[in-house]
Amino acid sequence: MTNPKKHLKKRLSREKRFRFVTFLSLAIPITFLTFLVGHIFYQAWPAFFHHYIDLEINAADLQSSSFKESNPDYRLLTRQLLEKNLEITATPQQRRELPRMLSPHASDDLAITLEKLPSSPTTPYIVSLPTSAIIDQYMTTGDNSKLTANQQQWIAALETQEKINRAFDTSFWQSGDSREPEEAGIWGSIMGSFLTMIITLLLSLPFGTAAALYLEEFAKKNFLSRLIEININNLAAVPSIIFGLLGIVVFLGIFGLPRSSPLVGGMVLALMTLPVIIIAARASLRAIPNSIRQAALAVGASHAQVIWHHVFPLALPGILTGTILGMARALGETAPLMMIGMIAFIVDIPSGFTDPSTVLPAQIFMWSDLQETAFVEKTYAAILVLIVFLIMMNLLAIIIRQRVEKKW
Q1: Whole-angstrom Cα distance, residue 181 to residue 370?
Q2: In the chain, what percentage of residues exceed pLDDT 70?
Q3: Which fold has domain 187-404?
């Protein structure tokens, strides 16, 4: 006869092992996820800041013979200000090295700053100009492999004079794409993603909800409805790049819509998101007890009134949750948008649904393929921004579900 105490001890031991395995299956993914997010944050953090050089400028600098108000040479003025603040008389070789201390667009920033000043300032004025990518990289990581001996000496001198400071990089959030890493920003891709998501939402939510209502509440359960249901489930598993090919053939080839536009991108992503929304909406409608429908019909409500006043409001939280999760998936898609040209180098910020634009995942892909070291930080920073957007969309789905959910 089996000893009851021994049998109980074995059963408790198996239960502890099973509990440990289930805990381990949760702890391992969380550990890897924490490491991944931590690594991305560590690599991305420097991209949110940039180093600037403070240069002193006065009326004498603006009245020099080399700076004519009728045709000002701001590049020359920028180099002369560097020479003055470094207290050097540059040789021809040093004159070639000095401009590389600053961003290629530093002269444009200087011109914008001087336009806000009086023509002849009575007191010296400090203007902060962005450093070049190699200087910023050196100040951040200490990598001096791309610096000359003169540039290292000039940086040391400027640090001694406390003329190099680190500040929040607003251009990263306000600029479009650029070949220069210190000038490249994500605002253009964010606007492209925003416009694309608007089109996707306007098309996928009403059509997906209407299709789910018809299939679940009106359509007869026959061979045709089962065939449609099977095809919807299959479409949800189709690789996203197939929808991009459909966009090329139909939207660009047949209808002649503008290439690389949020309009076409939103239509392609709407086709990809529709099956997800239909499946989620049907599941929400199916979860409503039949007793609610029968009670409404018993008091004289029509079929349409039952759906609109009782079934649909109760299913709305699940429909909205499925929609937001589908939109979050669409926000992170790159493959279908590559097929319609939304992975091009676009500097201008899109202002309409037909303007050429790109999206944030495509911007990340393009930056990751560039050779400059400074673009690595920009890539990680854009990834971090995209992760934050995805987390916010998932939190929004949870909040909406809790706010509009009705219990019966």
Answers
A1: 10
A2: 94
A3: MetI-like fold (1.10.3720)
